[in-house]
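Give me the fold.
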Amino acid sequence: MRAADELAHRLQRHGDGIPLLAFRLPALERTAWRAGLRAARALERRARATFATAAGRVLRADDLTAHDRGSDVFLAALAAPMRDGTATLAPVDVRSALARIAALLDGLGGFDVDAGWTRYVPADDIRAATARAIARGAQERERYAFFSAVGHELRTPLTSIRGYLETLASDAVDPATRRRFVAVAHAEAVRLGRLIDAMFEISLLDVAATFPLHASGALDVAYTAAATACASRAAERGVTLQLAAIPPTPVAIDGDRLTLVLINVLDNAIKHGRAGGWIDVGVQLEHPRVVTLTVDDDGPGIPVAERERVFAFGARGATAAIGNGIGLAFVRMILERVGGRVEIADAPGGGARFIITLPRR
């Protein structure tokens, strides 16, 4: 009997609801494809030893583990009885055990891990339960990344509002500037409210379904709002924004999301471009179905091999600029949901060029 089936047989005696933890190590499959079966088996032996060490440090004496030879999945069942008489561990404790074992697999063996958990039901097929656990883990990681991205985007208008209000609190502002700052702060507050509303619209399981097919916005309006929101950050670094004149241009994405896209791209250029340098924004309106916006900076540029990676959640550029690596991932997510795209090329001045393509309304 295979180890996973033996684990399922032993769990039959524990009833419903035992937490089943699954750890998938993609490196085992990759090694089998690239280096052959012998190399994969050697790596699997090392993974088994690492998993045994990790499980021994985290699990209780009566908890169960299993691994089938030739598989890239390792299982743990939190079957030990609770001292307080509770039937099973609470979700927070299960997630803690999952995270600790995954961290040890990485720290002790250098293994990337796709981890997740589910409640095992004796009627389940153990392989179906394992697949459910891995899928649940992927959904939870996506949920965490999504809300991290939303929090990042909400901080942008909050920072802008705070900056304008702090300036208004001083006595060195003339009446005309005061009125302009109040208007900008009000516009940012309105946009912040819309972003919060949009956060609750977006499904964590199928984001595409929440973006209206017939949404519309004005590129020129969103562009002006984004440039205004980024002006203070540009001034801090001495960066000059060379902005193209954009005529009224309706596009098939609502204005708040488009403003969000442009703020993130401009902010990225400001952070990673040269201090005291420039950012050049151009627009091409000749195509009947799409509008193309280019954002060029004079920074170090982005190597071809790194251009896809910068759109992944958590990825950060190679410069010393501070950031959490989620803004550009959010840009791609939004654009792809409305039929647009974002690409990276070399800027004429040697920096990075971001090419944003938007469908016309």
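Residues 126-168 form the longest helix (43 residues).
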